[in-house]
Amino acid sequence: MENHRKIIHIDMDAFYASVEQLDNPELRGKAIAVGGSSQRGVVSAASYEARKFGVRSAMSSVIAKKNCPHLIFVKARFDRYREISQRIREIFLEYTDLVEPLSLDEAYLDVTQNKKGNPSATLVAREIRDKIKDKTGLNASAGISINKFIAKIASDYNKPNGQKTVNPEDVEEFLENLDIRKFHGVGKVTADKMYRLGIFTGKDLKQKSAEYLSEHFGKSGNYYHNVVRGIHLSEVKPNRIRKSLGAERTFSENISSEIFMLERLENIAEEIERRLQKSKVAGKTVTLKIKYSDFSLQTRSKTISYFISSKELILEQAKMLLYQEKMKNSVRLLGISLSNLNTDKTELKKEAKKKIEVQLRFEF
């Protein structure tokens, strides 16, 4: 008999919005949006009451308010969300050390060999959800299966406050009957392309050869070919390496003056410096993100030869990127991110190679 891993994907239900409703009883049962405002910005999260009106995260606040006129906007409190997220993570660690956080509100757990000695991942998931509710007052949903890919899909099935288990013997049927839009990694553009190729379900996808999928979807083709057959070998990684770190701001009014943009970039660089110091990391690639008043998005990047983490050096690179070309419109959002961090294995290897080369030159 084949040995399968037992993977749980825990996903908090409307996490940011639920925290706000938990802390403020007056918001309970009401349509609320975290982030943005009635005139400006972007929704970070929406309560289930708001979602009934089509309000979604990453939606313009103006559109959200149009969809739901009685929507209440609440300012985001990330320190509070991080605090509760840490309490939830401590619950996870009571069951296994193999916990891979994806964000503040979701994580993978490998409970194949768990600290409670419980052979049933389904019961472990239910126990964890009950404990989260007891300790925080919040609801969580869960997906349970043989790998991360299927567990993540399953966690969305019985939301909110539910769970679904896809047992090994049910994997094939589950994936074949799945709408292609439900496949993790298939976005709207890819789904539309698959539809045009006559691929609507997992069963349709399974009938296509690896060569066919690679021809039409490039490197992703092999991924689609494997996952529809239940093949996804990615392990739960408790020490996920951060690839980038950044911050952005949406403005209450559009900005057309580069002087005002520099003021905003200075504030953003200061925030990034604080986060970098807290995480004890530095990076080499600075990316400037610009969203114009017509909602078009542009990014400009520059990679330098040394690691930086100070506000001054980050701002210096961001300025150069800002002046790289003339603004094509007024700006509603600016963001800066730093990547190629010194936690990146590739970058660490490069640095080690440099040190060896320098040492050899001196020895010679």
TrEMBL record:
Cofactor: binding details: Binds 2 magnesium ions per subunit.
Annotated residues for binding of Mg(2+): 11, 105
GO MF, any single term: DNA-directed DNA polymerase activity
The enzyme's E.C. designation: 2.7.7.7
Keyword DNA-binding attributed: yes
Marked site positions, Substrate discrimination: 16
Named cofactor requirement(s): Mg(2+)
Cleavable signal peptide: none
The UmuC domain, residue ranges: 7-187
Pfam families named among the record's database cross-references: IMS, IMS_C, IMS_HHH
Keyword DNA damage in annotation: yes
Protein keywords: Cytoplasm, DNA damage, DNA repair, DNA replication, DNA-binding, DNA-directed DNA polymerase, Magnesium, Metal-binding, Mutator protein, Nucleotidyltransferase, Transferase
InterPro entries with a match to the protein in the record: DNA/RNA_pol_sf, DNA_pol_Y-fam_lit_finger_sf, DNA_pol_Y-fam_little_finger, DNA_polymerase-Y, DNApol_IV, PolY_HhH_motif, Rev_trsase/Diguanyl_cyclase, UmuC
Subcellular location: Cytoplasm
Enzyme class: transferase
Assigned protein family: Belongs to the DNA polymerase type-Y family.
Function: Poorly processive, error-prone DNA polymerase involved in untargeted mutagenesis. Copies undamaged DNA at stalled replication forks, which arise in vivo from mismatched or misaligned primer ends. These misaligned primers can be extended by PolIV. Exhibits no 3'-5' exonuclease (proofreading) activity. May be involved in translesional synthesis, in conjunction with the beta clamp from PolIII.
Protein name, UniProt field: DNA polymerase IV
Organism whose genome encodes this protein: Autumnicola musiva
